[in-house]
């Protein structure tokens, strides 16, 4: 019974004074009634959120890596790799009960994926990518949830109750949300990265290198802005760029990633990609509150791994971007030849440049939409 707990004797109020002490004294009995232990409260840096953690699986039970691996029929070495891929720290002693039971349960689908024919190394890569992406999503959710319940006059108990209620309502929605978004991405990935006839004929081990066009777009003067604007404003600018890029990235063009102040796109067809980046530059040029963009485009053989792209055209597109003027789209000779005489675009020769990492000078062309500047 919580009435029998001597709060003073537990040490849970040590170091607290005034209203902070009174609020904690009000919070602790409520937590104890929900099964949170005194040890958990002592170990927590934010006791008011312990009830919310219980809603999403933190029952305070710990297991060993060996115990969890045996329970789910997975080899210990692979189980440990999957755990690290999910973002958990390495456990030195596989027999030590240091894994939160709910965290260990997250690897329970490993055996089923292996049985379906997914290679173990590929499964680790998939898990790592999911972990990285979902870690960012979890941080955004945490921020949104706290923003919904934190108010200047709210007590610790009020925040605890509100956060528990909010998380309890949202938790059942998370699984379907993640599944729907992942399946959406998978549908479009399969559509735009389909195995072509050449790969089938040559019997290449997939995913092999293929002819694609790569584009990078970055914000001009972003580093200088960092000296004048607070980090929150810089983050909002980068997020706006990512959002605007997703809007113009219509299939077969795919938005790949954000790298600070830069975004990357790829397409198996060069003309749609060029159209997309021209629209992106036009959209930002018309916004006086947004820095100007510069874009570099290149075509060549590249390979897709873990959702990213690697190869010469990736490196070339990045270098071409650095050579582009603010508000312009600069295209390598390889991409210019791949696009050909398309009446949607107007070209001007921008000269041959020596770009870092490339032995020969690269011929560059400036691209505009056919309707730009009265053309």
Walk me through the structure.
- The protein is of the alpha+beta class and 375 residues long.
- It has three domains: 2-43, no CATH class; 62-192, no CATH class; 200-374, Alpha-Beta Plaits.
- It has 16 helices and ten strands.
- Strand 9 and strand 10 (362-369) form a beta hairpin.
- Helix 6 crosses helix 9 and helix 9 runs antiparallel to helix 10 (156-192).
- Residues 194-200 have low confidence and may be disordered.
Topology:
Layout: H1 7-10, H2 18-33, H3 38-43, H4 50-55, E1 62-63, H5 65-71, H6 76-85, E2 99-100, H7 101-105, H8 110-115, H9 120-149, H10 156-192, H11 197-202, E3 210-219, H12 222-226, H13 231-248, E4 254-259, E5 262-267, H14 270-285, E6 293-305, E7 308-310, H15 312-323, E8 329-332, H16 333-339, E9 345-353, E10 362-369
Parallel strand pairs: 6-8
Antiparallel strand pairs: 1-2, 3-5, 3-6, 4-5, 6-7, 8-10, 9-10
């Amino acid at each position: 019974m919580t009435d029998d707990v001597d709060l003073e004797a537990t040490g849970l109020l040590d170091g607290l004074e005034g209203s902070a002490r009174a609020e904690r004294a009000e919070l602790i009995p409520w937590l104890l009634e929900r099964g949170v232990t005194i040890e958990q409260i002592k170990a927590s840096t934010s006791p008011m959120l312990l009830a919310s953690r219980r809603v999403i699986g933190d029952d305070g039970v710990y297991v060993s890596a060996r115990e969890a691996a045996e329970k789910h029929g997975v080899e210990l070495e692979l189980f440990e790799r999957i755990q690290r891929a999910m973002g958990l720290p390495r456990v030195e002693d596989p027999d030590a009960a240091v894994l939160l039971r709910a965290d260990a349960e997250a690897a329970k689908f490993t055996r089923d994926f292996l049985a379906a024919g997914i290679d173990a190394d590929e499964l680790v890569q998939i898990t790592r990518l999911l972990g990285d992406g979902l870690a960012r999503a979890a941080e955004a959710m945490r921020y949104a949830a706290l923003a919904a319940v934190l108010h200047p006059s709210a007590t610790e108990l009020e925040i605890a109750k509100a956060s528990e209620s909010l998380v309890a309502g949202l938790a059942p929605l998370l699984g379907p949300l993640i599944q729907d978004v992942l399946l959406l991405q998978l549908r479009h990935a399969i559509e735009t990265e389909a195995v072509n006839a050449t790969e089938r004929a040559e019997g290449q081990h997939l995913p092999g290198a293929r002819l694609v066009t790569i584009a990078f777009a970055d914000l001009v003067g972003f580093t200088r802005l960092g000296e004048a604007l607070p980090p929150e404003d810089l983050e909002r600018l980068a997020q706006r760029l990512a959002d605007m890029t997703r809007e113009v990235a219509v299939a077969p063009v795919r938005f790949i990633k954000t790298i600070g102040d830069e975004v990357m796109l790829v397409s198996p067809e060069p003309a749609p990609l060029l159209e997309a980046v021209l629209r992106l530059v036009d959209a930002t040029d018309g916004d006086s509150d947004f820095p100007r963009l510069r874009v570099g485009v290149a075509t060549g053989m590249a390979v897709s791994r873990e959702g990213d792209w690697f190869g010469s055209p990736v490196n070339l597109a990045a270098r071409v971007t650095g050579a582009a003027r603010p508000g312009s789209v600069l295209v390598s000779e390889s991409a210019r030849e791949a696009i050909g005489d398309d009446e949607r675009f107007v070209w001007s020769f921008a000269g041959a440049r020596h770009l870092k990492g490339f032995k020969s000078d690269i011929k560059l062309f400036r691209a505009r939409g056919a309707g730009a500047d009265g053309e």
